[in-house]
Amino acid sequence: MKKQFIIIGLGRFGSSICKELFKLGHDVMAIDSSPERVDSMRNFSSHAAVANATDEASLRELGVRNFEHAVVAIGENMQTSVLCTLMLKEIGVPLVWVKAKDVQHQMILEKVGADRVIQPENEMGIRIAHHMDSEKVVDYIDLSEDYSIVELVASEKLMDQSLLELDIRARYGCTILAIKRGDEVNVAPMPDDLIKLDDILVVMGHREDLKRFEEKGV
Ligand code: ATP
Ligand code: ATP
Ligand code: CA
């Protein structure tokens, strides 16, 4: 379903979100105070406008109120990002996601009502560290402090065995959510589905269980 998004701040983070949402077929309004930045997004957004993120009148004039979901991607200038977030929430935008540069910035954003705070450099660093920690881990998502989803490459150990035979849930407390094979994704694996060499297993579980499965099971 087509959704309406507004992206304020078109640095590397904001512009990549803008382009991707537009490519996915959504209505995206791109805003930045720099005319050059705005121009560079003209072909990758539904509407691009020059405006100051902290000027409430301009934001209202642009119809920000009609958008369901906004992203504030101004990392370096904390004051601007906090003020803009506050205004968007005041105006009544239901979902406001904001980029933060550090923990202090994150805490302030949460206080002024940001619905989600993202620290891209920090989060990407953590994911990359997990890829580096184990060559079996191809992707990694934290669900909470304790629970994660990892994508693991299946080795000979699991080759040609069924999920029933492997009994991963009982032995490791982990759940196989999906099995990827080339371009195909089996999102509802059945007990008698066989695992092939180099399949990618999407596995959910407690961090410690996942680590145990990764080291001993896969
Ligand atoms: P990146 O994602 O590239 O790391 P960043 O988080 O470091 O970006 P900045 O480089 O500080 O953030 O700003 C991102 C964008 O926000 C820039 O294009 C900048 O022109 C724009 N910007 C900064 N202040 C304002 C403002 N008051 N109103 C509108 N846009 C602004
Ligand atoms: P971030 O991940 O925070 O966005 P960045 O990619 O923008 O970082 P910089 O802030 O330019 O990169 O530098 C990152 C780190 O590299 C800094 O701690 C800086 O001190 C260090 N650094 C920069 N140049 C050198 C150098 N020639 N030798 C060693 N360290 C360096
Ligand atoms: Ca930056």
Automatic annotation (TrEMBL):
One of its GO terms (molecular function) is monoatomic cation transmembrane transporter activity. Transmembrane segments: none annotated. One of its GO terms (biological process) is potassium ion transport. It holds the Pfam family TrkA_N. Residues 135-218 form the RCK C-terminal domain. InterPro entries: NAD(P)-bd_dom_sf (IPR036291), RCK_C (IPR006037), RCK_C_sf (IPR036721), RCK_N (IPR003148), Trk_Ktr_HKT_K-transport (IPR050721). Coiled coil: none annotated. Residues 2-118 form the RCK N-terminal domain. This is Potassium transporter Trk.
